[in-house]
Design a protein that fits this description.
The chain is an alpha+beta fold. It contains eleven helices and ten strands. The C terminus is likely disordered.
Length: about 325
């Protein structure tokens, strides 16, 4: 049974201009995509500079030259072990990012938010393998009770594990792009760092999936941004995290989204009161950073197959005994 016997192991590696994806690194991570090819170092250098520039633009107080802060990013790889059927082996299951904020004025370093980007083998299985099968068979749909339940259980066990709580002081915040299937409407709520809040007409497939991970969604468009970001959080996003922590997440993930989805996040006009994201939008600027979206899609399918072969099929009987997700 998937319970407290599970052992989660955490490995971290700096994401800097010298970063090279290791063989054990999950290749579907978006940041790994940036670190391959002839322009890998140039890609990484430009990306890191964009992150620092955005951070300093938002953290503008006592920062007259807009150069006070530098953000260091680490890739957090999570492996699962501990059950006898693993035979002493550890299986990679997910990756996140953590940030550290260096204040050059005081010489201090502050821990930022853990989470930010999020990649998962089991999520790739659910969306790339299982969901198409359900659609083809007509026997189920993504909104069913079981879809995403295993992944939600694993994620919540990880966040509650000793490995996580000893490594990170606060619960994770995952920051993704807004869904192109939804319409977002601007509200009157404005946060001093997160910016203006948007709300959607209904929950997206991703929202329902992340709810099984114990995470609720809020949508904010920070000052200087052109589209709202989706923040998935367990607690109170607006009060549980400091301004610098929130700025670190915004600077990191908005930069990645400008590279991944420039049609939305590097558009030449900001979202209006009623906003529907679209990847067919043509009025946007290029970051001049190479990123292969088609490769990302193909690798997602490959990693879903890996999860099925090495996790889902071998341990199906065990997985069917899993308890429900922990209460938030």
């Amino acid at each position: 049974m998937i319970d407290e016997a599970l052992e989660f192991r955490i490995k971290t590696i700096p994401f800097d201009e010298d970063y090279r994806p290791a063989q054990a690194t999950r290749l579907t991570t978006n940041f790994a995509n940036l670190a391959r090819g002839a322009k890998r170092r140039e890609n990484l250098r430009k990306t890191l500079k964009m992150i620092d520039n955005r951070f300093n633009a938002l953290a503008h107080w006592d920062n007259p030259e807009a150069a006070r802060y530098a953000l260091a990013t680490r890739i957090v790889s999570v492996e699962i072990a501990g059950l006898p059927i693993f035979e002493g082996k550890a299986l990679p299951i997910m990756e996140l990012l953590s940030t550290q904020i260096r204040d050059t004025a005081s010489g201090t370093c502050l821990e930022g938010i853990t989470g930010n980007s999020f990649s998962s083998y089991v999520r790739d299985y659910d969306f790339s393998i299982l969901l198409p099968r359900l659609a083809a068979s007509g026997t189920g749909r993504e909104g069913s009770e079981d879809f995403g339940a295993l992944h939600g259980t694993l994620f919540q066990r990880f966040v509650q594990s000793r490995s996580y709580t000893e490594a990170f002081a606060k619960p994770p915040v995952i920051c993704l792009s807004a869904s192109t299937s939804q319409t977002y409407r601007r509200t009157g709520n404005r946060h001093p760092v997160l910016g203006v809040e948007y709300r959607q007409d209904e929950l997206s497939r991703t929202d329902r999936y992340f709810a099984k991970m114990g995470l609720g969604a809020r949508f904010f468009m920070p000052e200087g941004s052109v589209a709202p970001l989706a923040f998935y959080v367990r607690g109170d996003l607006a009060s549980d995290y400091t301004p610098l922590e929130l700025i670190g997440a915004i600077a990191t993930m908005e930069t990645f989204q400008k590279i991944y989805r420039p049609e939305i996040y590097n558009a030449n006009a900001a979202a209006g009161a009623c906003f529907r994201p679209s990847l067919s939008h043509t009025d946007y600027s290029s970051t001049r950073i190479d990123y292969d979206r088609e490769e990302r899609s193909h690798l997602g399918l490959a990693q879903g197959r890996f999860a099925e072969e090495h996790f889902i099929k071998p341990f199906q009987a065990l997985l069917e005994q899993r308890p429900g997700p922990c209460a938030p």
